Amino acid sequence: MRQRLVRVVGGIAAATALLAGAAGCNSTSKDDSSSSGGGDKCGLELAYFGALTGSSANLGVNIEQGAELAVIQYNEKHKDCQVTLKKFDSQGSPDVAPGLARQLIQDKKIVGIIGPPFSGESEVADPIFNEAGIPLITPSATRTSLSANGWKIFHRAVASDSAQGPAAGNYIKSTLKATKVFVVDDQSAYGAGLADQVKTVLGSAVVGTDKVQADGKQTDFSSTVTKVTSSGAEALFYGGYYQNAGLLRKQLTGAGWKGVLVAGDGVNDPGYIKAAGNDAAEGSILTCPCAPASKAGGTFVADYKAKWNVDAGTYSDVAYDAANIFLQGIDAGNTTAEKLNTYLSTVNYKGIANTYKFTDKGELDPAQIIVWAFKVTKGEVVPDVEAPKS
Question: How far apart are CA 155 and CA 140, in angstroms?
């Protein structure tokens, strides 16, 4: 789930990034075929798999940059034994993801994956990664059902929509005190699933629902706008991503609707404000099963800004932690995909965004679940409160 990289011909990019110096090392073992089966921790690869281009790429870029920063810092401390991060641009698309996943698994030096960020691409790519036995940590794919597929390689570093949805619904009820709510989703695996969770919490307060097309496929929301304005809704919950949400909010404001738009982490991005305009976006509530990246521990906030010349965004800190979990495992001698997967089953890692332990289904330990509400204020997305879970 963020848009400044060039689209690659054919829609698939697998650009290799060699980070912080040479990838070579002084080890005597140079057998490239040993990636998933060798014992040398020098020259191994991690992968970022997710959107770098496309209508919702901002969130993916946040994640890639967080992961890349972790690898850069690791390599600065291991100059004679480097790890490489390879980038696979899925555009966040379930259509692109399967072919790109098959391409990734051909590289036998990749022992771990950060991503995929989005639930729709996860549903079609993760079975391929599972068959190949390559462990993944998704920093942001929140559809609840992803952990119910029996994938042994699946790990989620944030809470699922079974936590975020109720938190958003309870914020609407308890904080906004809205008694009439309209619910819209973009029919994606993520957007529809999150909207369903919210509708369950709100019950009879839902006065209407509608569905729109996924990001990039619709720009005219006049039909939905008419339904919302005529429903008497005081709040609207949107399940989907930031580009659509911004255009919808802009058109609602243009039609005179004064209610509050509430949305999940797929909208928690400055791209929403850009699409809506500052005035229309003002006061919107955006949830996330994450703490504010601006409050991350250690020197992360300053390091990220120094490296990328932008502030850390949604899930940048979680991705940094995910990459460091893999790197800690590699440093401890878990030099194959199989060994890293076993390592993840017992890890208890204190990161800069959270502490990470995974259940046998790959979910974040319930004690570590976080959901925050953010508010658009004077053209910026700023932390509001930790959202009520019940």
Answer: 11
